[in-house]
User: Which sequence fits this backbone?
């Protein structure tokens, strides 16, 4: 969802192509697979399902590229990052984060109480529901015509807040 799905759904719902046409499954699929990362993940998933493993030489060759992913994500966020100038942008960021953490916390409580898995798995699900926004979100927001700078700031604040919340929960889980 982070590397293509959310963009596909959002861009169609917002009609970012400028056309106010009904949503067609073909448009959704086309946009879903407009991400090179999404195509790569799907190809590797298909190879895994049919039992074909990637040769070690190929893995060694692409290893430096995959290692650069975290750097490139942070670099992109840094390029877009600026502090909001308007009071309503600060309010918007706080509203988004409050909504995101409220929904995440509610889902975390429900999943922790309802899921029929071991305690360790349920704790991991709780932490995942409170993790930061995806690092590619600002790029997709810009592609949809949104404010990439504000999205980058909100994403950075999400990361900071999530690290604090997840650290507190991980500490609590380790003692209980």
Assistant:
């Amino acid at each position: 969802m982070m590397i293509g799905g959310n963009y596909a759904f959002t861009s169609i719902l917002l009609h970012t192509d400028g056309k106010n046409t009904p949503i067609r499954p073909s448009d959704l699929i086309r946009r879903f697979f407009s991400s090179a990362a999404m195509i790569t993940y799907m190809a590797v998933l298909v190879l895994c399902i049919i039992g074909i493993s990637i040769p070690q030489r190929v893995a060694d060759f692409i290893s430096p590229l995959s290692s650069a992913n975290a750097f490139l994500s942070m670099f992109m966020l840094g390029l877009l990052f600026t502090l909001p100038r308007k009071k309503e942008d600060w309010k918007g960021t706080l509203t988004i984060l409050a909504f995101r953490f409220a929904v995440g916390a509610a889902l975390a409580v429900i999943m922790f109480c309802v899921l029929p898995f071991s305690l360790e798995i349920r704790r991991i699900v709780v932490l995942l529901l409170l993790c930061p926004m995806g690092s590619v979100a600002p790029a997709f927001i810009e592609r949809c015509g949104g404010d990439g700078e504000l999205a980058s700031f909100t994403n950075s604040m999400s990361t900071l807040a999530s690290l604090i919340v997840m650290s507190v929960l991980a500490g609590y889980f380790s003692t209980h």
Q: What stands out?
A: The chain has a mean pLDDT of 83. The radius of gyration is 19 Å. The chain is about 75% helix and 0% strand. Residues 87-114 form the longest helix (28 residues).
